[in-house]
Amino acid sequence: MRHLLKRFSNLWSVHSSPSQTKPDSDKRPDASPPKRRPKDALRKKFLESYTLENGRGLEIGPFCRPVFRRESYPNMLYADVKSEDFLKRLVRKGDIYKEEDIVPLDYVLGNQHLDAVVAHETLDFVFCAHVLEHVPDMISSLKGIERVLKPGGLFLCFYPDRRFTYDIDRPTTTLSQLETRHKLRITRPASDTVLEHFTFNRKVDAGKVWANHNDAVGERRFTAEQAQEFALQATRSYVDVHCNVFSDSEFSDMIETLGAAGHISLRVDRMVPTRAPFNEFHVALRKP
To answer: In the 3-class helix/strand/coil scheme, how is the chain assigned residue by residue?
Structure first.
């Protein structure tokens, strides 16, 4: 149940596959009471490096635990792939969350990119956490974010570093892959991406990776046959996987490359590299 809640509440421009089993490292913490974690302090420090309180912002995938709460950010908007009614029906099936914990949504995206539902150049910032890696067409998603931002606006993102997650064995996503997906305007992960995700998927303890422990990386979590089954399923329906796999420096390089290629004008304004013992980096992209 926890996997389903995470999957349906933390993606945009996607529809998820309810049959997929997600690794433990992607579980969303319980909604109530929210617990302070060491990682939260780093996140808070990064976000507080910008003055955002009076800005008009949008958080993608807030579900039950928005990072930007309206008590402190009165001009905040919220968007999710699924409707509130859908999320409430999902919550009723388990005992992790309560219906009243679900954040009221301003936009339901479905399989659309942000610029299809939000007026262009109306936002000071857009935020998401562990979302961008899932989107099938990353170039279109970044273009959509860029269009809804005002000049000088920010896209703030928490992103998993492939070196410290279950993507540890996966090759870095290439410019050619991103451009092909964009040219085809795909709306769900291609079967080869799904095959790669499940073929290389390992259980990883990020803290132990940082400490160079021999048992930091476990066995592969899916058999070749299971990976093939998911790849076949991807030809018929949406299978939720990590589509865009980067380390911190690789992500920065890719944003620069996409800009040089004329795909986006967003530029890296600030990057906080992945720090021990965690598995994510924090990045702010600014629209000129």
So the answer is: CHHHHHHHHCCCCCCCCCCCCCCHHHCCCCCCCCCCCHHHHHHHHHHCCCCCCCCCEEEECCCCCCCCCCCCCCCEEEEECCCHHHHHHHHHCCCCCCHHHCCCCCEECCCCCHHHCCCCCCEEEEEEECCHHHCCCHHHHHHHHHHHEEEEEEEEEEEECHHHCCCCCCCCCCHHHHHHHHHHCCCCCCHHHHHHHHHHCEEECHHHHHCCCCCCEEEECCCHHHHHHHHHHHCCCCCCCCCCCCCHHHHHHHHHHHHHCCCCCCEEEEEECCCCCCCEEEEEEECC
Q: What is the mean pLDDT of the chain?
A: 89
| pLDDT digits 0-9 by tens, 219-229 | 999 999 999 99
Cβ–Cβ < 8 Å for 67, 37:
no
Quick: pLDDT tens for 214-260: 999 999 999 999 999 999 999 999 999 999 999 999 999 999 999 99
Tokens representing residue 214 in the block: 């021999």
Q: In this predicted structure, what is the pLDDT of residue 35?
A: 58
Position 186, amino acid: I
